[in-house]
Amino acid sequence: MRFDIITIFPEFFTGPLDYGIVRRARETNLIDANVHDLRGFTHDRHRTVDDRPFGGGEGMVMKCEPHFEAVESLVPPETRASPEFRNTAVVLLSAAGKLFRQATARRLAKLDRVVLICGRYEGVDERVAQHLATDEISIGDYVLSGGELAAALILDSVTRLIPGAVGNADSTVNESFSAATAAEPDDVLPAITAGRSPSNGAHGILDYPHYTRPPSFRGWDVPEVLLSGNHEQIRRWREERALEKTRRNRPDLLG
Predict the structure, then answer these.
(1) Domain check: are 42 and 135 in the same one?
(2) Percent share of the chain, pLDDT over 70
(3) Which residues contact 236 (CB under 8 A, 6 or more apart)?
(4) What total of structural domains would you count in the chain?
(5) What are 231-243's pLDDT values in tens digits?
(6) Distances in Å between the alpha carbon of 130 and those of 64, 106, 178?
(7) Which of 109, 128, 130, 189 is the most buried (most CB within 10 A)?
(8) CA distance linking residue 91 with residue 106, whole number of Å
(9) Distance (Å) of CA 20 to CA 158, 184, 239
(10) Tell me, what's the pLDDT at 180?
(11) Are residues 192 and 134 in the same domain?
(12) Closest among 227, 249, 113, 235 to 177, alpha carbons compared
C-alpha cells in the first residue's frame, strides 16, 4: 500500500515514519510512505502557499493551485475516471471534515493508495475539498495548528490493519472500536443480562482492561479473576469491564 503525504513541513514526518509498526511495515515493504513538500509545487520566488481570504476575515488560506499540482503529479487527472482510481483516496485533513473512526481506517486499509493533504493556517481553499479530495476528514472536535499530526495518526491507524503489519492478527480484531458496525444501543445490555457475549468486536464498545506482570504494584493488585484460570469467569468479567469502561469514557457509543 502506498501513502503520499503533502505538507509544508516534510521534516515533521522523520519521527512518525521511523518507529514501531509503521517502520516495520516500511522495512518489509507492506507500505511505501512518501513525503512531498507542497512548496515544491509553487512557481514564485517566495514559494508562496497561502494568501488572504476573499471576503475578509482573520488569518491566511492555503492556495488551491499548489495542492492541485502536487496531487496531480501523483495521481494524473486522467486516471480519476479509470477503474484503478477506485482504489485511491485523496484525503484532506480538516477540522471541518467528517469524523475519523475505526470504520474509516478499515475502509482506507482496503485501498492501494492514500494521499494525505495536511491543511494549515485558517484552512485550505474549498475547491480542494470540492474538486480534488475524495474525503475530508477530521480526527476530533478540536482544532490543531496543522494536519501533520492528523496525517501521522491516520497513517498509523490504517497501517496496523494491513495484513502482516501486526504480529498477532487477532490484536486488530479484539480491541476498541473493532466492530465492523456498531450495534444499536439497546443491543448491548440485554446481551450481558442473557449471558451472551457482547464483545467489543461485536458491538463497537471499548476494549476491556488489560493487566500484566507484576501481579501487585504499589499496592494495586491484578483482579483475582484474571489469575483464577476460569475462562468463563474471565470472559464475563471482561465483558462487564468493557461495558463499564464504555459507560465511563465513551457513553456516546451506547447512545
Answers:
(1) yes
(2) 86
(3) 195
(4) 2
(5) 999 999 999 999 9
(6) 11, 23, 31
(7) 128
(8) 15
(9) 14, 35, 29
(10) 45
(11) no
(12) 249
